[in-house]
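Section 5: illustrative case.
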């Protein structure tokens, strides 16, 4: 999800589509390769443009009917060189061709986007030189324009392609100008400098916008019933392509001040944070933003802590308390409402829990709806293969416990139901 985009996850994959465009020698293809390396699913409109004329497709028949049988080569396919000769230098004939090709390419792009969504992609990049000329802006969530000054484009194209300046200028003259592209862009990537500078700008935009997905409820061997090593969690996420960017270790009745997972996090490209899971008269509660001063205010190892006091202490120390698996019998909040009433101070509960059975999540969701609570998701994993079963997505960067608390307090998150 890129900034400014609203979303509603109702069991369907949220997908953000970037339209990437730019003129000749702008660096658009370099940008596309880098975004693919960042994890975006790529759709190349130029590749679709080659396929749209294949024999058997509607565009093939239309092209032959419009431009004649002589555009068909010996292999039975459209001879693109012959077709190019038919439209070169004629705006009217070129428009006839684009009126045939562009709708076909767009239909194929829509199919590719739909397939990417079904495959679980979160970001798709539609690379299309004619994105704006074809008026495809409404098909994407943001338009990214890679731009260079014309004199830079001419110098790069002549060096790269071995063509003369006049030929490059002729190409530039047939395309939209920089000012026209910029006027229609959501993001402008200035590529007037080095490739390193281009990639840095792309990285900044990628980090600005991408959804961060964290499993907010996991346990390692530090917990009394945990059987997973943190290193094995990391390896499992990467080898099995689990769709999360990191996790929070919420060890039972303690906070692990000693362990440093920064090297593991860097090695595997994951966010690894720490929290706690304590026990109250309302059941189990996750605590995010634990500090030494907070840890001294109550006994994390105690069973039957007063929930309202835990919430008050957390609020006073810039932390967040979240009742977890509230639909679970005995250890969930809903099981204690009849006896203790509705507790004060609860704002967020865990509505999706990877260890839930039967209707436990449904009970949690209904309770949250009835009492006006927000919801998070977490796997409650105690073994490696359960991590990422449920999670929470954030539209802003969350790389520290403090940023996690800030995001939760700002209510900028959305729970993700069971994924695998």
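Designed sequence:
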């Amino acid at each position: 999800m890129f900034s400014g985009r609203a979303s509603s996850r109702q069991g369907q994959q949220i997908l953000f589509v970037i339209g990437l465009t730019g003129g000749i020698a702008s660096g658009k293809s370099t940008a596309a390769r880098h975004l693919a390396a960042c994890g975006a699913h790529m759709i190349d409109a130029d590749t679709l443009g080659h396929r749209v004329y294949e024999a058997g497709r509607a565009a093939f028949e239309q092209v032959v009917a419009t431009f004649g049988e002589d555009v068909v080569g010996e292999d039975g396919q459209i001879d693109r060189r012959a077709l190019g000769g038919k439209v070169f230098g004629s705006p009217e004939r070129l428009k006839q061709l684009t009126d045939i090709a562009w709708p076909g390419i767009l239909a194929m792009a829509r199919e590719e986007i739909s397939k990417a969504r079904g495959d679980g992609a979160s970001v798709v990049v539609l690379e299309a030189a004619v994105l704006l000329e074809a008026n495809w802006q409404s098909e994407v969530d943001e338009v990214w324009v890679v731009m260079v000054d014309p004199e830079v484009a001419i110098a790069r194209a002549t060096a790269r392609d071995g063509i003369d300046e006049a030929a490059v200028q002729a190409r530039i003259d047939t395309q939209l100008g920089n000012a026209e592209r910029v006027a229609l862009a959501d993001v402008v990537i200035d590529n007037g400098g080095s490739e390193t500078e281009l990639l840095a700008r792309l990285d900044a935009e990628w980090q600005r916008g991408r959804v961060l997905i964290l499993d907010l409820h996991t346990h390692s061997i530090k917990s009394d019933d945990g059987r997973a090593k943190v290193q094995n969690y990391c390896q499992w996420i990467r080898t099995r392509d689990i769709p999360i960017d990191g996790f929070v270790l919420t060890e039972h009745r303690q906070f692990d001040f000693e362990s440093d997972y920064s090297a593991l996090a860097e090695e595997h490209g994951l966010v690894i944070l720490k929290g706690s899971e304590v026990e109250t008269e309302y059941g189990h509660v996750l605590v995010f933003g634990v500090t030494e001063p907070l840890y001294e205010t109550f006994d994390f190892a105690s069973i039957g802590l007063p929930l309202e006091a835990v919430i008050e202490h957390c609020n006073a120390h810039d932390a967040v308390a979240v009742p977890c698996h509230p639909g679970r019998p005995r250890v969930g909040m809903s099981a204690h409402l009849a006896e203790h009433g509705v507790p004060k101070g609860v704002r967020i509960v865990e509505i999706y829990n990877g260890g839930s059975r039967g209707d436990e999540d449904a009970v949690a969701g209904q309770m949250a709806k009835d009492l006006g609570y927000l919801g998070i998701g977490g796997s409650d994993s105690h073994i490696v293969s359960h991590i990422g079963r449920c999670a929470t997505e954030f539209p802003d960067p969350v790389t520290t416990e403090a940023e996690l608390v800030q995001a939760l307090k700002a209510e900028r998150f959305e729970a993700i139901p069971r994924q695998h």
